[in-house]
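Mods, move this if it's the wrong board.
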Amino acid sequence: MGIRSLVSWRSAALVSFAAACLWAADTAGLLTVNLDPAKTGVSWELAGNMHTTHGTFKLKESSIQIDLGKGTVSGYVAIDARSGESGNSTRDQRMHREIIESAKYPEIRFTFEKLDGLLTREGDSKVKITGLMELHGGKHQITVPAEVRLTSNQLSSTLRFEIPYVEWGLKDPSSFIFRVDKKVNIEVHASGTLVNSGQ
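Not the wrong board. Structure tokens:
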């Protein structure tokens, strides 16, 4: 091998090595989140003049990717609207039939658009997540605060926010005697595993 060939080979090797290092650094912060349906769900609370109604919804599916290097999050979380329950069968039948119309709109979906705040690789973070909420046939942009804990291979998060469901086009379930708030309080608890997408 001549001197020029040797120099060219070494240069190419250095370029390849540098490119590999840059690729590794870029992908090291790419994480895929696999939520656990058994540990992920939605709790809701609707205040009224006689009592406060509590209920839940279950996770249907999700696809979430986090880029720690760029500070972004993408993907979606889908909730099974038909799983909604409040512990009262008569009230739940009316909720599904008249309010959320789950037979016609069986899914509630949140699509991630923007992440504000620093999400650390290890430990607790407080961030704000902006996304598109698809509910009852409508699409609404909403920003919600999130408490997130990341460990080597686990994620847990809690989100608390309000949905102005009447303003968003859902029917007000109030009656002449029983009056309820026009906003419902939502609390999401999510838990799952992390996979390094760069591997």
